[in-house]
Amino acid sequence: MKPETLLSSSISNGAAAESSSHGIRAVPPGVPRRSFLRRLGMGAVLLSPAAALLTSTSKAEEDGNDIESESGLTKGDAALLRFAAAAEILETDLWVQYNELAGIQDSEVPGGSGNPAYTEALKVLDEDMDQYIHDNTEDEFTHFTFLNAYLVSKGARPVHLDQFRTLPGSTATGSSGKPRLTNLMQLTLDTSWYTRYRIHRNPDLNPDFKFPQAIPSLFTGEHTAIPRTDNDVNHHRFLQAIANTAGFHFATIEQGGNSLYPAMAQRARSVEVLRILISIGPTETMHFQTWQDKAGNAPPLTAVDPVTGVSVTFPDLNSPPLGGETFQTNLIMPEPCRFLSQDLPLCSVIRPTNTNGIAAAVVKFLTDMGLFRGQSQAFFAFLNQLAAEADAARRGA
Predict the structure, then answer these.
(1) Residue 311: beta bridge partners?
(2) CB 363 within 8 A of CB 384
(3) Phi, psi of 187 (to 5 degrees)
(4) Could you point out which of 66, 264, 374, 397 has its C-alpha 20 to 30 Å from the C-alpha of 389?
């Protein structure tokens, strides 16, 4: 599908009505800044698809100087920020689902009413899980609202995915029951990030090396990370397996952002866009650091899904036949590895950060984990288009 066909048929992106042709207006009197940004981020008032397409073809771009807007944001930088915004919208969607069931519902992150049994199962991993879930959810929300607001302030198109909110979510007590962008009930999780940060290997330099899975059974079949219905809550052992799955999913998601931002930053042309990417990225690292620590507290158990019959086993990662530095749960600081060259000394770094094809790789990673099961072809076409545009960004002129 051609980009212009995709724009006109399946999305309604465009500069929000709160913006002018040169930037974003001041917050209206009496409206809290948080509320203003939320309305902007959710795309309350958008231009028509035709107007959005017109916006993307600015006079400067027609002149051939690779500028998206009159304020000087290049097409590449705008594409990087749009992909980041889309990723953050998707993250926010999944975190909202977790928060509705097991986080703190308040004016900062409203929506659900909590599921006491699921909340208690997650608290087995850490007593403060509800607070951490709440704060992670709020962080992701601020990321995409800021990114979209910045794009609008530069006369560039923001990203909105509301038209793809079609997936059914949990019907268990506590869920708002709203349509979702992401599916948390049919996950296949790659937990090799766990050993990647405990082994002296770097996938940027050793792309063929296979890092062991921390939880091999999560890497096969489909698993739910939230109670699907109230019936799931009635199976105590299975409910704890659901909470354990969520604990590992939290870290699986956040380590993706941990690598995405430094990888994309290498393609930014504007110093200000570079500043945005390297300022948001470390917060994803803070999230990942928290969640990999909590995942290690998942109690060992084997449980069978009473609906699908799929079995999952959470081993004791500190005991034989596992154990050792590869699986030891309190080794949450990244082990040193080779960086840039096999000839240089070991260095403790985020990995991978190879920038080539990073956006497309993120889309594949999220798709492979089942996060988008049930989504439309228009959704995948739009997401892959955003990824292709971001991967085409170049730092040089």
Answers:
(1) 304
(2) yes
(3) -90, 145
(4) 374
Q: What are phi and psi of 298, to 5 degrees?
A: -60, 125
In degrees rounded to 5, what are phi and psi of residue 65?
-105, 20
The two structure tokens encoding residue 128: 């403060």
| Residue 275 parent element (H or E) | helix 271-295
Residue with the two structure tokens 């795309």? 43
Distance CA 217, CA 98 (A): 22
Q: What pLDDT sits at residue 396?
A: 77
The answer, yes or no, to whether residue 34 has pLDDT greater than 50, is no
Question: 9 vs 12, 50, 52, 378, CA distance in Å?
Answer: 8, 10, 12, 9
Bridge partners (DSSP) listed for residue 19: 24
pTM above 0.85, yes or no: no
Residue 167 phi, psi dihedral angles, 5° rounding = -80, 135
Helical spans, DSSP H, in 154-235: 193-196, 230-233
The helix (H) or strand (E) run that includes residue 139 is helix 129-153
Closest C-alpha to 112, from 163, 173, 71, 21: 173
The pair of three-digit structure tokens given for residue 323, joined into one six-digit string = 């154990």
Note whether 102 and 122 are within 8 A (CB). Answer: yes
Instruction: List the beta bridge partners of residue 345.
Output: none
Distances in Å between the Cα of 331 and the Cα atoms of 196, 287, 315 are 12, 16, 17
Q: Region 138-144: what's the mean pLDDT?
A: 98
Please report where in the chains the tokens 């998601």 appear, as a residue: 253
Contacts 24+ apart (CB under 8 A), 3-10: 3/385, 4/53, 6/378, 6/381, 6/382, 6/385, 7/49, 7/52, 7/53, 7/56, 8/49, 8/50, 8/53, 9/49, 9/378, 10/163, 10/378, 10/381, 10/382
Task: Of 4, 40, 45, give the one whose Cα is nearest residue 145.
Answer: 40
| Closest listed residue to residue 396, CA positions, set 129, 105, 74, 125 | 74
| Contact predicate 334/348, CB 8 Å | yes
Beta strands per DSSP E along the chain:
301-304, 311-314
Q: Which of 109, 86, 85, 112 is nearest to 101 (CA)?
A: 112
Q: Say whether pLDDT at 380 is over 70.
A: yes
Residue recorded with tokens 């971001």: 390
Spatial distance between the Cα atoms of 11 and 376, rounded to a whole number of angstroms: 12
